[in-house]
Every structure is written in C-alpha cells, then in structure tokens.
Amino acid sequence: MQGPLRTWEPTTYRSISDWGHLPVGRTILDQLEQFRIGARSLARPERTVPALGGSGIPDD
Predict the structure, then answer these.
(1) Which molecular-function annotation in GO is an example for this chain (predicted)?
(2) Cα separations (Å) of 44 from 12, 16, 36, 38?
(3) What is the pLDDT of residues 17-54, one digit of tens each?
(4) Cα 25 from Cα 10, distance rounded (Å)
(5) Sorting pLDDT into bands at 50, 70 and 90, what band is 1?
C-alpha cells in the first residue's frame, strides 16, 4: 500500500516574489547598480575555453 498522495504546494521564500522570481523590496538604486555592473561587463572581452568550444549543434 502506498502512502498518501503528495501534491505540490506553493511556498514563499524571503526576498523572492511569487510571480517573477525577482527579489522583493529592491530600490531603484539597487536596479541601477545592477544595470551599471551589466553595462561594465560589455567592455570586457568574454573568455572562452577552446577545448570546450566547437561548432556546436547545427541548425536544421
């Protein structure tokens, strides 16, 4: 005999919204800081590992 059927139940976590999985309570300054960090990363070249890079999977 099996145990009771368990179903998924929603839960909440501190600082995460239910709908967008985005931190809750962030200020505009937090968002601007994240944008600034992202923009700065565009100025740096992306490092690749040749042994892991390849032609990939061709598109059909």
Answers:
(1) dioxygenase activity
(2) 37, 30, 13, 11
(3) 556 566 667 788 988 999 999 999 999 988 888 877 77
(4) 20
(5) low
Q: Which two tokens stand for residue 54?
A: 């390849």
Rounded CA-CA distance 12/25 in Å is 15
Calculate Rg over the CA atoms of the chain. Answer: 21
| 6, two tokens | 């368990």
Q: Retrieve residue 14's tokens.
A: 């501190």
CB-CB contact of 28 with 18 (8 Å): no
Amino acid code (one letter) for 25? G
45: tokens are 């070249």
The pTM (predicted TM-score) of the whole model is 0.40
Q: Which residue in this structure is represented by tokens 């944008």?
A: 35
